[in-house]
Amino acid sequence: MAKRVCFPEQGKVAIEDFDPGQLRPGQVRVRALASLISNGTEGILLNRRFAPGSHWDGWFQRCGGYPWRPGYALVGEVVEAGADSELPPGTRVALRGGHASELVADAAGCHPLPAGLDPVLAAWFALAKITFIGAQAAGAVLGEPVVVIGGGPIGQMVLRWLKTAGAQLVCIDPVEARLEHARRIGATCLAGDVATLGEAVREATGGGAAVVIDATGNPKVFAAALGMARARGTVVLLGDTGTPAEQRLTGDVILKGLRVVGAHDGHADGAWNERRIVNLFASMVASGRIDMAGLTTHVLPGRRAAEAYAAITNDPSRTLGVAIDWSGE
C-alpha cells in the first residue's frame, strides 16, 4: 500500500495509507524518490497561520480544509506507463505531486530529468520555478544592485537566478549560517533587523537598490523594503504572507516613483512555462552553474515526516531545504 503525508488537523502530521489508483491513457505510475517541503506554504497550512478572509483562508476553505495532503515538489521514477504515454518505465521525472511514496499522474505534467542528477537536489525544481518568476519580475538586472531580503529557501534560490543574470547581490538575513550560503556565491551580506539596515543598504548599493525582493513572507518587511529602493526602483513581493493586512505602504512609493510587483507560481507564461524552467534549472544544477551545495539541511525518511515539519516549525533558523526520502519506503 502506498503512503503519503497528511495534516489531519491543525498542527498535526501523520502518514496514511492510500491507493494511488489505476492508470488511464496518458498517465504514468511514479515511484517516489524524494520530495521537498515548501517551508512557507506548508508551514502556513499546517499551523493555520493565515488571517480570516485572506486569500489563503478562501483557498484553504475551497479545497476542503483539513485533512490536508501537502506537497507539490516530487521526484521519482516511472514504473508503469499507460496507453498514449511517451514516458517509458525507468524515466526519472519531476512532477507537481504531494508527499507520497507512489503517485499516478498525467504524463504531460511529468518533466524528464538528466541522468545522474541527485533526486533531492532535483526536488528543488518547484521553488526554482517560483523564484525564476521572481527574478523575471525584477526586470533587467545586469550590473544592477539587487537586495534580497530573506536567506531562506526562496531567498537562496532567487539569489542564484539573479547571479546568472549578472546582478550585484546583497542579501539580508539575521541568521549567519544563511548568509554564508549567499556569501559563497558572491553576495554582500548584511545581518540584523531589516528595519535598521536602511543606511547599510544605501552604502552597499551606492544610494539605493535598483530592485528589492522580499522573500520572507513576513508582512512587517514590506515597509523596510520600500525604503531600500532607489528612485524609480522596483520592489518585488515574492514571499506570500498569510496576513496581508499587516503590510504597510509608505510614502516611498509616491515620492520615489516605485514600482511594486507581485510574483507568484501561477505567473508563468507561454514563453517560460514550467517545463522550460524545470529543464533550465536541472541542466544548470547538473552542470554546476547553479551552486546548491549545503542548501538541503534535512533529509528524513517518509515515516519520520512529522520530525521534518517540527524542524521548520520550531527551529526555522536552522532549516533551509527539508526533503523527504521515499527511496526506502
Which regions have little confidence, pLDDT < 50, spanning 5+ residues?
Answer: none
Instruction: Give the class-level CATH name of the largest domain.
Output: Alpha Beta
Please name the fourth-level CATH homologous superfamily of the largest domain.
Answer: Medium-chain alcohol dehydrogenases, catalytic domain
Order of helices and strands: EEEHHEEEEHHEHEHEHEHEHEHEHE
What is the molecular shape? globular
Mean pLDDT metric: 96
What's the domain count?
A: 2
Q: Roughly how much helix do the residues carry, as a percent range?
A: 25-40%
- The CATH architecture of the largest domain can be named as Alpha-Beta Complex
The CATH topology of the largest domain is what?
Quinone Oxidoreductase, Chain A, domain 1
Number of helices: 11
The total count of strands amounts to 15
Q: What percentage of the residues does DSSP assign to strands (E)?
A: 25-35%
Any idea what the radius of gyration is? 20 Å
Q: How can the largest sheet be summarized?
A: 7 strands, mixed
Distance between the termini: 10 Å
